[in-house]
Amino acid sequence: MYILRVCRGMQNCWRSSRAYEHFCKGAPWTLAEKILYTHLLNPAVDLAGAGADPSKVRGARYLRLGVDRLAMQDASAQMALLQFMTCGMSQSAVPASVHCDHLIQAYEGAQADLQRSLETQHEVFAFLESACRKYGIEFWRPGSGIIHQIVLENYAAPGLLMLGTDSHTPNASGLGCLAIGVGGADAVDALTATPLGVACAESLGRASAWKAVAVVLGQGCDSAPDGRAYRAWRHRLHC
């Protein structure tokens, strides 16, 4: 039932978007594509001439998107914030958060490891907290929890387009949003409301109902062993 509510909420957001009304009505778009297209800053430019034909968009268009939220972990947030400080802005352009978890290394146990991190990484944590306070960014101090669980419980929501400076950021997509892992430069772009530019992925085809994840991943690796092909599977949800 939760999945059905997520899908219905996303459908309502999609059908009220400019992209749907003027360019995409009547075409079989995937959930990921619907989230992307509802965040297009200028659908008239990025989808011009596509009509309702997915084949004219997938693998053929470059999209410029507005991001809803940014999450950063302590190891990668440092350089992003240092660069942001040179932009002359008084606060982040989008809701953002910094999570202090990656610099806590596991050796003995939770309390001992946390205390060691507080001592050895004191300067880093102090800088991150000060920068977050100055620029209106939420700060999750050491011991608050793992970034991905905090994002799931506090920030992820159906239809959201968010970025995170960690390769596991897509974990949040399980709640119906589109969460993408990025590097520090893209994080600074999000903080300054610079459009996120992405190439629209090609389609590998439709995965059969309830195909095992390992099978889908294996087929994707077989078709692109060098890791350069930018393609996606389409999957129909059966409820």
TrEMBL record:
Membrane-spanning ranges? none
One Pfam family it belongs to = Aconitase
- List residues of the Aconitase/3-isopropylmalate dehydratase large subunit alpha/beta/alpha domain: 61-204
Q: Print the keywords alphabetically.
A: Iron, Iron-sulfur, Metal-binding
GO CC field: cytosol; mitochondrion
Alphabetized SUPFAM superfamilies for the sequence: Aconitase iron-sulfur domain (SSF53732)
Superkingdom, natural source = Eukaryota
**Molecular-function annotations in GO:** 4 iron, 4 sulfur cluster binding; aconitate hydratase activity; metal ion binding
**Protein name in the entry:** Aconitase/3-isopropylmalate dehydratase large subunit alpha/beta/alpha domain-containing protein
- Which species does this protein come from? Malassezia globosa (strain ATCC MYA-4612 / CBS 7966) (Dandruff-associated fungus)
